[in-house]
Specification:
about 100 residues; about 70% helix; mainly alpha
């Protein structure tokens, strides 16, 4: 089953069992992106889980394009938020380098 079909089924039926297929398919990608930002395996695992939860709660806002980039965007934003929170707790300022 492709991503669109799985998401459509979840939205129409309310049955979230198919979401496990999405998690299995994209967990490695999200982990790779988040660990690149956070550099901590434990925190990264938590952020990836949060990303999947947030994505599930916002499935109806997915525009039907490629699911991987949409999920990755959520994971990266959560990673940056977590990084900022960690730096504030440590009294450091957040300095991000713009992507060119």
């Amino acid at each position: 089953m492709d991503d669109r079909t799985i998401i459509k089924h979840i939205l129409e039926s309310g049955n979230s069992a198919g979401y496990k297929l999405i998690v299995i398919k994209y967990s490695g990608l999200l982990f790779a992106k988040a660990i690149g930002v956070l550099k901590d395996e434990t925190i990264t695992k938590d952020v990836v889980q949060q990303a999947f939860i947030r994505a599930y709660s916002q499935l109806d806002s997915w525009n039907g394009s490629s699911l991987g980039p949409w999920l990755t965007t959520i994971a990266v934003h959560l990673s940056l938020n977590e990084l900022e929170k960690m730096r504030r707790l440590n009294g450091e300022e957040l300095h991000l380098t713009p992507i060119e």
